Amino acid sequence: MNNNSDSLNGPKALGAFLRAHRERTPPQAVGLPTSPRRRTSGLRREELAQISGISTTWYTWIEQGRDVSISAATLDRLAIALHMQVAAREYLFSLAGVKDPLARPADNDMDKAVGDCVHQLACPSYLLDSAWNVLAWNSPAEQLFAGWLGVDPQPNLLRFMFLHPLATRLVINWSQRAKRVVAEFRAETGHYAHSDIIRQWVMTLCNESEAFNLWWTQQEVLGREGGERRFQHPIRGEIAYRQQTFSPAGHAEFKLVMLVEQV
C-alpha cells in the first residue's frame, strides 16, 4: 500500500494540513466574490496569504513544507481566516511546534483509583489513553464488545474499528462512525505530535487499513463528541446508547467513555 500517513509533526505535515483546509474553504466564506471562470472551489494561496497578512511567497513555502519560522500571531491569523474550530486550531499549533494559549496540559501518570472507578459504573464504560489503548473496562462493556474486550490481550479502539472483523458487524453505520473516529483521533494526536509511539501507530494503521489510510490523508479534524451510538448485538439485537466522554481530574490525556442505554 502507498504510505500516505505523513509525519505527525514538522513542516511537511503542517503544509499538508493548511493546504487541505485552504482547498476546502470557499471564497464566499471569507467575503470574496465568486466567478464562473474560477478554477477552484477553495481559496487560492495568494488569497489566504492576503487575508492573513503574510506574503504569498512565504505562505507558499509553508505549504511546500519548507523549514520556515512561524509565529503564534501568524498561526492565529491563519486559523481565523480558515474558520478553524477549536480542535483544528490546537492541531495547527501543535504541528508548528508553537505554544497555543488554548493547549491542554498533559499528565502521564495514572493512579489505580482512576482505573478502578470504571468498575463502579453500571453502564458499559471503558478508559482510553492518548493512543486509544483500552486501559480498563467493566463487565457491561465486555458483554457489549464480546469477542474483543476480554479476548484481545492489548485492546485498542482504533485497532478494533479498522482491523477487527467484529467491528463492521457490531457498529451500525460503521463507515460513518469510523471516518469520524479518524478525524477525532487526528485532533487528539496534535497534543502528542512528538510521540514516537503514536507516530508509529498511525503509520501501522495506514499500512494495514485502506480505510484508515484514506480518511487519515483527508486531514479532517473534529473534536470528540457524544451522541447516539447504535450497535447490532448478536444476542440482544439493536441497542442504542448515548455516549458521554470525560477526562478524569488531573489526567487530561485519558478519556472515560460511558455508554448510557436509551429507552
UniProtKB/TrEMBL annotation:
Top-level taxon of the source organism: Bacteria
Sequence ranges assigned to domain HTH cro/C1-type in this UniProt record: 17-89
Taxonomic source organism: Hafnia psychrotolerans
CDD domains per record: HTH_XRE
Pfam families per UniProt: HTH_31, MLTR_LBD
Region feature Disordered, mapped onto this chain: 24-43
Name assigned to this protein: Transcriptional regulator
InterPro entries the UniProt entry points to: Cro/C1-type_HTH (IPR001387), Lambda_DNA-bd_dom_sf (IPR010982), MLTR_LBD (IPR041413)
